[in-house]
Amino acid sequence: MKHYGLLKMSLFYKILLNFLFVGLLFLTLKVTTKKFQAYTWMWDTLLHKNYSYIGQNPNLTFEQKQEMKLGFYAKYLNHVKNNTEEDAIILMPPDSTLSSTEPQLNLKYLKDRRRTTYFLYPRKPVYRKSYQYDKNLLAQLTHVAIVDYQGYQELDYKLRDKHRFTVLPITNK
Amino acid sequence: MTFFGILLTFLLGFALLNLISNQFRLIELLGFSFLVGIFSQTILMFFLNILSIEYNLVLIFVISILLLVSICIWHFINRPAVKSGIRINYTLRKLKPKSFNFLILFAWGLIIYTLYLISVKSLYWPTSASDSLTSFDLYAKALAHEGKLLNTLIYEKRVGYGAAYPPLYSMALSYAYLLGFETSKIIPVLIFLSFVLSFYCLLVRLNDPTSAALFTFFMLVTPEFLVQSAINTTSVPHAVFSSLSVLCYLEWRREKKIRYLYLSGVLLSAGGFTRSETILYMAPLLFYLLLYSVKQKTYKDFFIYVCISIMPFLTWQFFLKAHGEVMEKFIQVKLLYTPNFDFNQLNEILSYAYKVITSTDHYGITLFLFLICLALNTLEIIKKRKLLDLIFLIFFVYFGYILLLNQFELKASSYKAIVSHSGKRFFFGIITLMWAYISTNRIINTLFKKVNYLITIPLIKSEDKEPK
């Protein structure tokens, strides 16, 4: 009977000690998180802020998420992708056009041939500056990417209604 | 289809692990299966490419299923069903916990909660990391669409330098696209989940479950490591394969159970098939093993280990050489084969690397805790050489990276840009190894033995023994 009592007592103390150690660990985590900014940022922003944002916006489409994350250039490239066939060869605007647009549109990323390809693949964006790689494709262009009203001069037809950002077939067939 | 594809990868890994040995514990099989499965499938895709066969989903499915069936038949012939039945019963019986404490429950709660949050984040947001947009994920799209490594992106140079990296990661991402996923991020998520479980499995062999769970959690919340696990680049998968390989190797050294040596070889091979700098992990491991083999005068395991671990890496290097005319433009740096005695440059790299490794923004408390543990265990290290191989390996890889960078002739970028921006990713492998050391050194071991004695609540009646 004495042995049974001891077991019971030790179990009580063990549970008490368990709570004590969990408390200690919790305190250590709290202090570490407060002391080191990286942990605070990771816990609050990376994990919780993201999670609450996701909870508030569970039904965004893939393209909407891309636009949220990467800005207007992703929205524009998704527009180009959705309005061209998979085998399209698209003339992209020159750097000078892209540099003159508002910085908040993030269109500088359109200068990057690889980033543009990421959004448009298997379509082929073609840049005149990349002549060494794209020279064969310049003769086979099917579309022109219109950015900031630039690119209409590449079309072999005239349009009355002009959009600031769009993609158009190079010939009016 | 998506679920079946992932399940098939998992089952293939499960079967291959059982082929190595049927002595792996269930939790180890769960942890390592996806890692081994996806590696074997990318090897399959690569060899199809070498044979000039374009891969597609049907082909991968057919070959994977055939492989799976062959392994099952092999098991049926060589390991009779009765034996397997006994083994399963034994494993399930071992799953019943004999004791528990609240600390381990709390630690596991934190691990699961953190993994859940980071996985949700990772799966929700599309790829946005520059390296992935211009290299790995972009290349994966073309691999899935065209089924070959030398595709239009390569010929028209529409992909970044990542195309010259060993192809495990891009091919794994391409598998996700072939399965019909909108984003390939299921792959890094599954790799990371598998890693955490595998890391725990290996720590628990060296220490008690409570400290293994706690230190797995601390390793998991290393800030930069957790951030990068949710983006689509090769650094975290590389760290996963390399560090697990080292831990398996150490487990083999400790217990001489051959299955861990073979598993280490497979994981090292996967590391070498993800990033070429795995050579920094390969060199000391092969050197240790060679020394051991010479001492024991048995070379069979050494040759098996060398073959397993080096073959995919070497085959990739031959592939790059064989297709030099098209792949040359993707090689970011030129490696100098004669020692570079430019000490100013070395000094510059050292100072950048020091800033990176000591940054608490990147690795939190890891380095400081590691150094404290080293200091507290100095006598133990000197007298008993305990965990000396792990400590040596950590320092070898750190300085190895610096010396390797010193041997680079950069085509683009600068050392400052490479070390300051990418350097933080180079050290993920040794950061996880530092946590392995922190959790398994003598001081922590003794501390947790005492703590465990105080808090362990037995579920099955057994005699309590005070730790020595």
Can you describe this structure?
The complex is a heterodimer of chains A (173) and B (468). With 173 residues, chain A is an alpha/beta fold. Chain A has seven helices and four strands, in the order ααααβααβαββ. In chain A, strands 2-1-3-4 form a four-stranded mixed sheet, sandwiched between helices. Chain A has helices at 2-35, 37-56, 62-70, 72-82, 95-99, 113-120, 131-138; strands at residues 89-91, 124-126, 143-147, 165-169. Chain A has two domains: 2-56; 62-169, no CATH class. Chain B has 468 residues and is mainly alpha-helical. Chain B has a domain at 2-323. Helix content of chain B is 75%, strand content 2%. Chain B has helices at residues 2-20, 26-50, 57-78, 81-95, 102-124, 130-146, 152-155, 168-179, 186-206, 209-220, 223-229, 235-255, 258-272, 279-296, 300-322, 324-327, 343-357, 360-363, 366-376, 378-384, 388-406, 415-426, 428-440, 442-455; strands at 99-100, 333-335, 408-410, 457-458. In chain B, strands 1-4 form a two-stranded antiparallel ribbon. A two-stranded antiparallel ribbon of chain B has the order 2-3. Chain B is globular. Chains A and B meet through α1, α2, α3 and α6 of A and α5, α6, α11, α18 and α24 of B.
